[in-house]
Specification:
By secondary structure, this protein is an alpha+beta fold. The chain has five helices and nine strands. The two termini are 20 Å apart.
């Protein structure tokens, strides 16, 4: 059973997309994952298909998929740029996406083509407002 929005976690220091990805600055890079809301909606995640380091993507472009017991869901880039790292742990333990979506369940690290893209993402209040419709 899915949780109520009030029961989910939305850290203030990260930004969000309409597609339920998050981005968090780490120096000149951005760590990217899926939100607590997304993992809750998907249910138990059993597989993550992620890109390779060195791959380049435009903002909004599909960069991978998540497979859960309920559905397959596409992943979209919150910013354009180069993939510099992927979370190798997800190959063996995709459930980290459910248990720690903002911690051990991060998916990719991106070197943004335009650092200003981060500022275009939603803050916590805007994301919560979008979720509540």
């Amino acid at each position: 059973m899915t949780k109520k929005i009030e029961e989910l976690i939305f850290p203030e220091e990260i930004r969000y997309t309409d597609d339920h990805e998050w981005a968090k600055p780490e120096g000149n890079l951005l760590k990217v994952g899926i939100t607590d809301y997304a993992q809750d909606q998907l249910g138990d995640i059993v597989f993550a298909e992620l890109p390779e380091p060195g791959d380049m993507f435009e903002k909004g472009e599909e960069f991978g998929t998540l497979e859960s017991v309920k559905a397959v869901s596409e992943l979209y880039m919150p910013v354009g740029g180069e993939i510099v790292a992927i979370n190798e742990e997800l190959a063996d333990t995709p459930e980290l996406l459910n248990s720690a979506p903002y911690g051990g369940g991060w998916m990719i690290t991106v070197k943004p083509a335009d650092p200003g893209d981060f500022d275009d993402l939603m803050d916590t209040a805007a994301y919560l407002s979008a979720l509540k419709g």
